[in-house]
Write a structure and sequence with these properties.
This protein has about 425 residues and is of the alpha+beta class. The protein is built from twelve helices and 23 strands. The chain starts with 20 loop residues before the first helix and ends with a helix.
């Protein structure tokens, strides 16, 4: 992509409404823009990052034999009334009547909807186990939207649901998804903590939160200074680790995932049953598994930035390489830059060419701000001896080598 043909509105100054470092860089790097409090437009770079996160999630959920679906955001309130959660969620839910007088809501989550679907299509133990998942927009009327994508009224979530005939099957699926979550977050470049948590209005006996340490995180976690065991600060936790008795340190964190063993809470309420091998009618045993997809963008920025801007992990970067043409009025520099762009594209390497008529200093600062892993600089040295300057955004190491060596090294680095 050419910079001049896309929308990347970078900002030099920190916007007044930006409360956290991730919110500041989200706006400064031109990833997103706020329409109103709690609702954001994803611009081209932000959307590419979002799609990269979704790709990782889909790959890892498919590895658990999950099947992807897409459920309606528009939901009948009657289903929520049958489960009793219309009262539990209360004012957080967007509710309204349509022109026919039907009571509807915009889905804050989809447990009721998936259970209603399954009850009409699963009738035998032979159809179990089953895992279904989706990546969907959710809606919650947050009392105080803040921190950009971290607490929004409209956000993107991956929610998965497992269906089993017994607790043993649930345990197996729960563990499989738990391990898949650890792989997802590792591939996203996140250092994540898995913590036993309260199930809250979701129901069930067992749940785990996945937390990411962040300076401005909304949640608090206690970390053992010795064995690194983590517990939720909201629980009745002592100041000393129950495992090794070392002291606990409080840190701020962002919740990016939560998984639950729901049991029969929803299947009993909505009548989702199956016939076992002996012909007995039993409620389906359920689990649910959520990831805040759009939240991951903010969490990754919180853990992957420096004084110059974002430092994207390899798999999430909107582009793998940015070519900085230092003088676009020089036809030879642009010829080399355009040729390099085409060669990288032919190698299957996603590349952004900065073809703006801007000062070199502006281009260098913007390249660092965007956080694209590899910067290739085309200047007078390229005209003199055919060399290219490569800057590694993560290590800040700089190399000046012939173009052929640079391309060979990039192909090896990116494609393994």
């Amino acid at each position: 992509m050419l910079w001049s043909k896309t929308l990347i509105p970078t900002l030099k100054e920190i916007p007044q409404e930006a409360e956290s470092i991730s919110h500041q860089l989200l706006l400064r790097a031109g990833l997103a823009r706020m329409l109103m409090a709690g609702a954001y437009s994803y611009l081209p770079l932000g959307l590419r990052v979002l799609e990269n996160i979704q790709k990782i999630i889909i790959e890892e959920m498919n590895s658990c034999f999950g099947a992807q679906v897409l459920l309606p955001a528009l939901q009948p309130l009657e289903l929520w009334q049958r489960s009793g959660r219309d009262k539990d969620i209360g004012e957080v839910m967007f509710r309204f009547n349509d022109r026919r007088g039907r009571k509807l809501c915009l889905g804050p989550t989809h447990e009721e909807i998936i259970t209603e679907l399954i009850k009409n299509h699963i009738s035998s133990y032979k159809q179990l186990p089953l895992i279904l998942y989706q990546i969907q927009t959710k809606f919650r009327d947050e009392i105080r939207p803040r921190f950009g994508l971290i607490r929004a009224c409209e956000f993107i979530m991956k929610d998965a649901y497992s269906f089993d005939q017994d607790e043993e099957g649930l345990d197996k699926n729960y563990l499989a998804v738990h391990q898949a979550y650890l792989r997802i977050f590792k591939r996203c470049g996140l250092d994540v903590l898995s913590i036993e948590a309260d199930s809250g209005v979701m129901g069930g006996k067992v749940s785990h939160e996945f937390m990411v340490s962040a300076k401005d995180g909304e949640d608090a976690v206690l970390i053992c200074s010795a064995c690194k065991r983590a517990v939720s600060f909201n629980e009745d936790a002592d100041r000393f680790c129950v495992k090794c008795k070392a002291s606990l340190q409080k840190i701020n964190a962002i919740e990016i995932g939560h998984i639950f063993k729901l049991g029969t809470k929803y299947s009993l309420a909505l009548g989702a049953n199956f016939l076992d091998a002996k012909g007995n009618l039993k409620p389906i045993i359920m689990g649910c598994y959520g990831i805040g997809v759009s939240r991951i963008i903010s969490a990754v920025i919180e853990q992957n930035h420096d004084n110059d801007g974002i430092v994207w992990p390899k798999e999430l970067a909107p582009y793998q390489v940015i070519i900085t043409a230092l003088d676009v009025t020089n036809t030879d520099i642009m010829r080399i830059s355009s040729g390099l762009y085409e060669e990288l594209d032919a190698l299957g390497i996603s590349v952004l060419l900065d073809d703006r008529d801007e000062r070199a200093g502006v281009k260098f600062k913007d390249a660092d701000l965007l956080g694209i892993p590899v910067q290739l600089i085309v200047g007078k040295g390229s005209l003199r001896d055919g060399s290219l300057e490569l800057k590694d955004r993560i290590t800040k190491e700089k190399l000046i080598k012939p173009k052929a060596e640079i391309l060979k090294g990039l192909a090896r680095r990116i494609h393994g």
